[in-house]
Amino acid sequence: MPQVKIVAKNFMDMVASLPAMKLDKLYQNAFICQAILRSMPPLAKKYVLQLLFIDAPVTGKMLEESVLADGLSKHKVAIDRLIQLRVLTEALDRKKEATYRMNPTFQINVQKLIVHGGVLPREPMPSTAGFRLPSLEELDAYAVQQWECFLLHLISSSEAEKATTNISSSMMKVFQRGLLSQNRDDKEPPRLTEGGFQFLLMDTNAQLWYIIREYIGNSEERGLDSADLVSFLLELSFHATGEAYNINTLSDIQRTIIRDLADLGLVKLQQGRKESWFIPTKLATNLSISLSDTSSRKQGYVVVETNFRMYAYSTSKLHCEILRLFARVEYQLPNLIVGAITKESLYKAFQNGITAEQIISFLQQNAHPRVAERIPTVPENVTDQMRLWESDLNRVECIPAHFFEEFPSREVFEAACDHARECGGFLWENSKKMWLVVKAESFAYMKEFLRGKKQ
Questions:
Q1: Which of 119, 206, 256, 335 allows an S-S link to 8, with CB 3.0 to 4.6 Å?
Q2: Contact present, 288 and 237 (Cβ < 8 Å)
Q3: What sign has the CA pseudo-torsion 257, 215, 190, 151?
């Protein structure tokens, strides 16, 4: 079974993948420079501050002198990241030693921020404006609701339609890029691809980064400049969670982006009598934080027992639908989902492209706090059996083939076997009955070879 791997890069990976001209354009914005600086590995930050007021090239040996012997691997990671982001440019001096010089635009903007401080991209609306802001708890609940509705569109459009939220067409296009199959007609709804099934088992942070990456990736098709989009998303990370910002301060393109981000739950839109505003959630203000940061991850809810019984303490419809991807859900109470991991339910998951390791990782990441501290979190007999069932399913490999018999002589049969081996199409032979099986792609070569033997 071919495996599809869904990779979720963090924001700095996306920034580093931009063309050089667009990166230079980004560095003209002081807040982009600040956002990139705070997202760097600690050692990379140290190098930037160390070289900030040095205009001449600096040798690589000089930077290595401040690193202990066991920190050379981190040194290489930091230098590679700075070069990828074009914060540093690398050159060779007369002695053919590596030297580094800081990007002058990035350098000047960071110098100004440190010496003079910076001004926020936009000021929040005053609290005396006469409108009620949602509490942080209400805002978090809103973000969760939006994100779950977003994911329900992947699993079942009928389930998503029961919610009050509508997903914009631009975000549905993001869905269909690698996650949903494209149908030739509109009679059948789109189906999840292998990557789509795997995506649903990913951590929420990883899911968000994947969607943001795809959203940036197809921005050109929607008439948006990817550099402008990245710039605005990084600006959002400097806004305060729960504060209201006037939409009139945004450009037309930024207003379009804000509406799309509201579908994801990154911002909440509100309309007053005269003005409208957006309120960033934690998903937006944490955009420039590393993907490995676990502070925003939810508390787990799944308990798996040694008898393959599964209990999920959740009120979420989304959680129930995700568990159905690999388990048999037996019944659902207001705050409890009861099911079992069976051979049949796992075979269905394997056929959809989900692997045993992905299911095990999902169960470990979403383990209930009562079992999360245990080692192992998921019983070993359960994880071992899941791997065995997967290996059983993959023991037989189906290969399209052609069967040859009734050779005119044993000499022709043996020559055909040798020719099949030489062209890489040989699969099986029975020398007593003079039977030969070859791969389908080798059929034309074998047919031509046998035709020549008959002549």
A1: 206
A2: yes
A3: negative
Amino acid at 239: H
What pLDDT is attached to residue 381?
96
> Cβ-count burial of 52 within 10 angstroms (0-12 exposed, 13-18 middle, 19+ buried)?
middle
Neighbours of 11 (CB within 10 A): 24
Cβ-proximal residues to 373 (8 Å cutoff; 6+ apart), any chain: none
For tokens 């990913």, name the residue. 202
Tokens 């569109």 label which residue?
Answer: 153
The type of residue at 247 is I
Token digits of residue 319:
């959680």
In sequence order, the 6+-apart residues with CB closer than 8 A to the CB of 310 are 302, 303, 304, 323, 327, 338, 339, 340, 341
List pLDDT tens digits, range 244-262. 999 988 988 889 889 888 8
Give the pLDDT mean for 81-98.
86
How far is CA 357 from each of CA 102, 134, 219, rounded to the nearest angstrom? Answer: 43, 40, 33
H or E segment to which residue 101 belongs: strand 98-102
The residues pairing with 100 across neighbouring beta strands, listed in sequence order, are: 58, 90
pTM of the entire structure? 0.69
Give, to the nearest 10 degrees, the angle between helix 204-217 and helix 136-155.
70
Residues 6+ apart with CB under 8 A from 187: none
Nearest to 116 by CA among 30, 56, 54, 27: 30
Structure tokens at 373: 């501290």
Q: How far is CA 85 from the centre of its chain?
A: 20
Q: Is the dihedral of CA 162, 167, 173, 178 positive or negative?
A: negative
Instruction: Please tell me the distance from the alpha carbon of residue 248 to that of residue 427, in angstroms, as a whole number.
Output: 69
φ/ψ (deg, to 5) at 119: -110, 135
Q: Where are the beta strands (DSSP E) in 231-376?
A: 245-246, 267-271, 276-280, 302-304, 309-312, 328-333, 336-340
Q: What average pLDDT score do residues 41-64 get? A: 89
In angstroms, the CA 193 to CA 178 distance is 7
